[in-house]
Design goal:
Elements: H1 6-16, H2 20-30, H3 34-43, H4 46-52, E1 59-67, E2 70-78, H5 81-84, H6 87-103, H7 107-112, H8 121-132, E3 136-145, E4 149-156, E5 163-164, E6 166-173, H9 178-195, H10 207-222, H11 228-246, H12 261-272, E7 277-285, H13 297-304
Antiparallel strand pairs: 1-2, 1-5, 2-3, 4-6, 6-7
Amino acid sequence: MAEITAALVKELREKTGAGMMDCKKALMEIGGDVEEAVDWLRKNGLAAAAKKAGRVASEGLVGVVAEGNHGAVVEVNSETDFVARNEVFQEFVSRVAALSLDAGGDLEALGAAAYPGGGTVSEALTEMIAKIGENMSLRRAGALHVSQGVVAAYVHNQAAPGLGKIGVLVALESAGDVDKLTAFGRQLAMHVAAVAPQAVSVEDLDATALERERNVLAEQARASGKPEEIVEKMVQGRLRKFYEEVCLLDQTFVIDNEFKVRQAVEAAGEDAGAPIVVTGFQRFKLGEGVEREEKDFAAEVAAQLGG
C-alpha cells in the first residue's frame, strides 16, 4: 500500500473539500489512490457534505435542557425552516443539547462527544447533511451551573419539547424551595427571551463598552451647550436609563410590568424561603448574527437567460 503522506491528504482535500481526517481515512481505505479516494468520499456522502458547507445555514433549531442545578443550550443551523420540522433533525438537536450538559458549553468537546448509536456528534452531523441534502452546522453551545438552587429554562416558538427559535437558561443560586425557584426561574427566563438583556447587573457589563457609551452620552450632552457640571448630571441620568435597558436586574419585569426584576427576585426569595442570587443567563436566538444571503431572483433568472 502506498504511503499516506500529508501531501496526498492535502491534494484530496483540495479536490473534495472534505475534512482532513475523512480524507486520510479514504486514502487508507483504498490504498492511497487519490481518484479512487474521491469516489470513496462521494459514495459515503462526505464530499457532497463538504460542497454544501459554503451555503448559508441560518435556520434550524435552538435546543435547551435543564436538570436541577445545571442546564445547557445549543444552536444547530440548517439552510431552510423545512428541515427544522424534520423529526430526524429534531431528534439530533435534542440529543446534542443533552450531551452538552457534560460538555459544559465547550463546542469543541461537544463535537467530539460520543453520539448515541456510534461515532461522534460531528460525524453524526456529517451523515445527516449527506442524508437530508442541506448544509448544517453545530454553531454554538452554552451551559450554566449553580452549586445550590436551580437552572431554569424557557423555549419560545416551540417546535417540539425543548426545541424552538429562542432558548433561555437562567441560573438561580438559593437554598429555597426548589419547586418555587423553578417556577420563578421560568418566569425570569421568559422575561430574558422577551427583553434580551446584555448582562445581569451593571457590574457585569463590559467595561470598555460602558466607557464608550458614557463618552457618546457626554458628547451628546455637551452639544446642548450646558455647563460641564450640568453635562455630568445629564450623563448620569442617561446612564441610569441605559442600565434599565440592558441590565436584567434594572429592567421592568415583563410578567407584571410594575416592579423591577431586582424587586421580583427579592419577593421570590421571600416566597421560596431563602434569598435568591441570579448568577447568570444564556439567551440563544436562532440565526442571531448569521449573515443571511439575500437573493435577487429576477437578476438570477436574467443571468440564466443571458440577459
